[in-house]
TrEMBL record:
Zn(2+) 1 binds at H105, H223, H261. Zn(2+) 2 binds at D139, E169. Belongs to the class II fructose-bisphosphate aldolase family. One of its GO terms (molecular function) is zinc ion binding. The lineage of its organism: Bacteria, Pseudomonadati, Pseudomonadota, Alphaproteobacteria, Hyphomicrobiales. It catalyses: beta-D-fructose 1,6-bisphosphate = D-glyceraldehyde 3-phosphate + dihydroxyacetone phosphate. Pathway: Carbohydrate biosynthesis; Calvin cycle; Carbohydrate degradation; glycolysis; D-glyceraldehyde 3-phosphate and glycerone phosphate from D-glucose: step 4/4. It comes from Pseudovibrio denitrificans. This is Fructose-bisphosphate aldolase.
Length: 356
């Protein structure tokens, strides 16, 4: 097995990682982060499980990283993502695993955000000889296929010289993620929630000559966690898309790198099945959000007086050691680490880091 240097990887290294996942039939969790606490928890969890990992920022997560009060919210979305990427570049290698840096959904109104990040990426590439992000996602799944693919072509042409990869979306992931999508989409009989293999083939024909790309294909997956029964996962849709591309172009097994959005709350056997159809990345956000808040919340409920008084009015006990924000944040970090340990196990990536 090829070994890679630890830290943020890109270009050929990223392709090596995807190939190893395809051959080993495992996937990496792509975890949405909002600050240093969540980033460090993801890196710690990956190191503890000897798995490589994907760190990703939504536009809202990036804005929060720069500061929710920053006056210019567009600038905050751009600079927050740049700042988070620099944090990961500096620290990731010291955790001894390979890290993919990625940005999440950019719909039509967020194309300027993506273009600003690519401009920062071009500056970073000139200065450092490597891209700032491994990959970006462009999500024009709500537009026509023609608009989706022509914009994908345009951006991939800019990103390929930086050795970056593009993730596109075909068919709609249900639910809502940071202002993209809508809860009204959810419903097992909604045809929009299921990607057409012909669309995947057209994307392959148009994008493969330009650079490296991956496809978020919809097979009934949704963002968020909903009541059981509202969602019907049909991983066989992924199999059919792979088959059409493979047979049309006479390629090997699972030629396309596929991405599973809305991994939170998904049935374990459907996750396992999707791994056999070339899924190398599964997004997880809602479940790690809950894991952080559940643990931090439990910590507060344990000693509620410490969050109302510096010194207990009845017993005189000083609470400095309890309300120190590091205690609360560390509890949340440990919640994320515990949940990701489960994800590395579900995705069969534990113990498989390619880092030397
Ligand atoms: Zn998503």
């Amino acid at each position: 097995m090829t070994k890679l240097r630890p830290g943020v990887i890109f270009g050929e290294e990223y392709k090596t990682l995807i190939q190893a996942a395809r051959e080993g039939q495992y996937a990496l969790p792509a975890v949405n982060v909002v600050g240093t606490n969540s980033i460090n928890a993801v890196l710690e969890a990956a190191a503890a499980n000897k798995s490589d990992v994907i760190v990703q920022l939504s536009n809202g997560g990036a804005q929060f990283y720069a500061g929710a009060g920053m006056p210019d919210s567009f600038q905050a979305r751009v600079l927050g993502a740049v700042s988070a990427a620099q944090h990961v570049h500096l620290l990731a290698k010291h955790y001894g695993v390979c890290v993919v840096l990625h940005t999440d959904h950019a719909n039509r109104k967020l194309v300027p955000w993506l273009e600003a990040l690519i401009s920062h990426g071009e500056d970073y590439f000139r200065a450092n000889g490597r891209p700032l992000f491994t990959s970006h996602m462009l999500d024009l799944s709500e537009e026509t296929l023609e608009h989706n693919l022509s914009e994908s072509e345009r951006l991939l042409k800019r990103m390929a010289p930086l050795q970056m990869s593009l993730e596109i979306e075909l068919g709609c992931t249900g639910g809502e993620e940071d202002g993209v999508g809508s809860d009204e989409d959810i419903g097992a009989d909604n045809p929009k929630l299921y990607t057409q293999p012909e669309d995947v083939l057209e994307a392959y024909d148009r994008l493969n000559p330009l650079g490296h790309f991956s496809v978020a294909a919809s097979f009934g997956n949704v963002h968020g966690v909903y009541k059981p029964g509202n969602v019907k996962l049909r991983p066989e849709i992924l199999r059919e898309s792979q088959k059409l591309v493979r047979e049309t172009h006479n390629l090997g097994e699972n030629p396309l790198p596929l991405v599973f959005h809305g991994g939170s709350g998904s049935e374990k056997e459907k996750i396992a099945e999707s791994l056999g159809y070339g899924v190398f990345k599964m997004n997880i956000d809602t479940d790690t959000q809950f894991a952080f808040s559940e643990k931090a919340g439990a910590y507060v409920f344990e000693t509620p007086n410490a969050f109302k008084h510096q010194i207990d009015p009845e017993t005189g006990t000083p609470y400095k050691k309890v309300y120190d924000p590091r205690k609360l944040l560390r509890e949340g970090e440990q919640g994320i680490i515990t949940r990701l340990t489960e994800a590395f196990d579900d995705l069969r990536s534990a113990g498989k880091s390619l880092a030397q």
